[in-house]
Design brief:
Radius of gyration: 24 Å
Shape: elongated
Oligomer: single chain
Strand content: 25-35%
Helix content: 10-25%
Number of strands: 15
Number of domains: 2
Keywords: Signal
């Protein structure tokens, strides 16, 4: 069981004792990300190549799947596999759906210039609770957490925002203009006349500009290109959960937790870190940020520890096992793309001032949507004894 200090630095809230002074620690993001194999085969990372409308349900596991996952692999990352999003096939020259919105024509470079002039990158920095991530790019978002596509009839960010607001689990949206073929390109129509589509995609995980790397494709001889791509994300919808109170939302980073002071706690309680889980996995499917998975996994980890208590030792004379009292949920973003949700578990509820780890020093890995939750059950215990201390 790998419960080493890969993430010895995560969580938030101080309910029992005064918070000790932090010790310098770093999350080993390289180790964490090395355990993120690519995405689940049947979990899309963007629209199909010829889609004009796609509805992807928000997918979250049930409680038994989370418990079974912890039983099989307690407090260690699961594995995922990748699915490619652009599947290119030869078309049959069938007419493609026409868009009633404003149309632009010409070869790709001319088409892009027309669109960029008509839809300049001057969209507002904020839109309600949303913050603009990028504007005026020539690519659309391509990452995990895809929740669907709607082709609308104008370059209307408020229309796209409203669709995200109405979609369960949606944390962000991407509006862009796409040069599509009027016929499905094939041998009989290798480079048909273009049509202009206005596409709105919805996302269940946050992202940055680096996620906008879908720059279209060549379908037979027709070049699909993208312009005027703009995107917004909003804070995570963290709130109180059954048996867990929200202690911090939209935090700067992941918790960087030191050890508890040895002069106030027995040796077996000073290290409060209990490991972490990453989602989605092959067994626990997830396409949006859902901290309730973390609290369920936290309880499952406590139950696992109770079934597998440590043996008697000089450092743990009462065979005490750790109780999961605090979780820190967040999303790791690498080069602009969400890599999945991390749940880190602690026996002690740390103060939000410890949420100081914003990512790797070179800026390629960042922490987003960080929230902390504290177990509200009483009595609150860091550990539970399972054998009597020797006399």
């Amino acid at each position: 069981m790998r419960t080493t200090v890969v993430l010895v630095a995560l969580a938030a809230s101080a309910l029992a004792a005064p918070a000790p002074k932090p010790a310098p620690q770093d999350i080993n993001f390289s180790d964490v990300l090395s355990d993120f194999a690519p995405f689940v085969d049947d979990q899309p990372t963007g629209p199909e190549y010829n889609a004009t409308t796609e509805t992807i349900p928000a997918t979250s596991p049930n409680h038994s799947e989370i418990v079974d996952n912890v039983k099989a692999d307690p407090a260690t990352p699961g594995k995922l596999r990748r699915r490619d999003i652009l599947k290119r096939t030869q078309g049959d020259c069938r007419p493609q759906p026409a868009n009633r919105g404003p149309q632009f024509f010409g070869e790709p470079a001319d088409w892009i210039a027309q669109v960029q002039a008509q839809c300049p990158p001057n969209n507002p920095d904020t839109l309600g609770t949303y913050t603009k991530v990028f504007d005026g790019l020539l690519g659309s978002v391509n990452q995990m957490g895809y929740l669907g596509l709607t082709t609308i009839h104008s370059y209307d960010i408020n229309d796209c925002k409203a669709r995200c607001d109405a979609k369960p689990g949606c944390l962000g949206f991407n509006l862009y203009v796409e040069r599509d073929p009027s016929l499905d390109p094939g041998a009989g129509c290798p480079d048909p006349a273009p049509i202009t589509n206005y596409k709105c995609t919805l996302w269940g995980f946050p992202f940055e500009a680096g996620a906008a790397d879908n720059r279209g494709q060549t379908r037979y001889q027709f070049k699909v290109v993208i312009a005027a791509s703009v995107a917004y994300v909003k804070p995570p919808p963290c709130s109180n959960l059954p048996d867990f109170d929200l202690y911090g939302s939209g935090l700067y980073g992941a918790i960087n937790a030191p050890s508890l002071p040895a002069d106030s706690y027995p040796a077996y309680q000073t290290n409060t870190y209990m490991g972490f889980k990453q989602y989605p996995t092959d067994d626990v499917r997830l396409n949006y940020y859902d901290p309730s998975i973390c609290t369920a996994a936290c309880d499952a980890q406590t139950a696992y520890n109770e079934r597998h208590p440590p043996g008697l030792s000089s450092s743990n004379p009462t065979c005490a096992f750790k109780v999961c009292n605090c979780i820190n949920s967040y999303v790791l973003i690498k080069n602009g793309k969400a890599q999945g949700m991390i749940c880190s578990f602690y026996s002690y509820t740390w103060d939000n001032s410890y949420a100081v780890n914003g990512g790797s020093a070179d800026g390629t890995v960042k922490v987003a949507s960080s929230c902390t939750f504290s177990n509200n059950r009483l009595p609150r215990q860091l550990t539970i004894d399972t054998c009597a201390a020797p006399i």
